[in-house]
Design a protein that fits this description.
Layout (H helix, E strand, L loop, with lengths): L16 H13 L7 E2 L5 H8 L5 E5 L5 H4 L7 H10 L3 E5 L33
Parallel strand pairs: 1-2, 2-3
C-alpha cells in the first residue's frame, strides 16, 4: 500500500479560516478511518436516536430553489438547515438536482416536476 503525505495547506491562498480548519481536520484523519455521511437532514434525529451518533457530513439538495419549482410554489429550508448543521460543527455538502428552468412540458408522462434539460421544449441543442 502506498502511503501518501498530504499537505494541509489549501491550494487556494485566500481560503477562509473555516476552509483551512476543515482541510486540517481531513488531513489529520487521513488513513485513520472514514467519515459517515447522510444526504438528508430530516433523518438526523432518527440516526442519532437509533445509533447514538450523528454523521460527520450531511448533504443538502438545492433542487427546490430551481426556478421551475419556485414558480409552482416550492419552498425550501435547505440553506437554513445547512447553516444550522454547520453551527453544530458538522460538515456541509451541497448538490443541486436542477430542473429545466423554462418551457417545461406538463402533460401525462411528462409532468413538469420530471423536467430535465432533455425533457424541455424547445431543445437547447439540436439532435445529432
Amino acid at each position: 500500500m502506498t502511503v501518501r503525505t498530504i499537505n494541509s495547506a489549501p491550494v487556494n491562498k485566500a481560503a477562509t479560516p473555516e476552509a483551512k480548519e476543515l482541510m486540517a481536520f481531513l488531513v489529520e484523519r487521513y488513513q485513520k478511518g472514514m467519515l459517515a455521511g447522510q444526504q438528508d437532514y430530516s433523518n438526523l434525529n432518527w440516526i442519532n436516536e437509533n445509533t447514538g451518533r450523528k454523521p460527520a457530513v450531511i448533504g443538502f439538495d438545492l433542487m427546490e430553489y430551481s426556478p421551475s419549482r419556485t414558480e409552482r410554489g416550492a419552498v425550501s429550508q435547505e440553506i437554513r438547515d445547512a447553516i444550522d448543521w454547520h453551527k453544530q460543527g458538522g460538515i456541509v455538502t451541497l448538490c443541486w438536482h436542477w430542473n429545466a428552468p423554462t418551457d417545461l412540458i406538463d402533460e401525462p408522462g411528462k409532468e413538469w416536476w420530471r423536467g430535465s434539460i432533455r425533457m424541455r421544449q424547445p431543445m437547447i441543442l439540436p439532435p445529432r
